[in-house]
Amino acid sequence: MSIHPDVAPGASSGKHYHPGDEFVYILEGSGTLEVEGKSPVSLERGVTYHVAPQQVHEAKNASETAPLKGVGILIAEKGQPLVVPAK
Fold it and tell me: What is the pTM of this model?
């Protein structure tokens, strides 16, 4: 399934996970990707990332004025939720 993980200026996606693999290409903006148990990764135009199934993560927009926009795919079993909030 195609996804469009956009984060508003000054906001974050909130901690969550996906039931399948997430692959994303950053179209515009800048920020960080924080994956539980790993060092933060800088996000900017042209960067790609992968998050494994069930891995808690959060994207944060570094700008107070411009959105952080991406496009990608989520590969998961049919019928699974797209996003599951982390507890």
Answer: 0.91
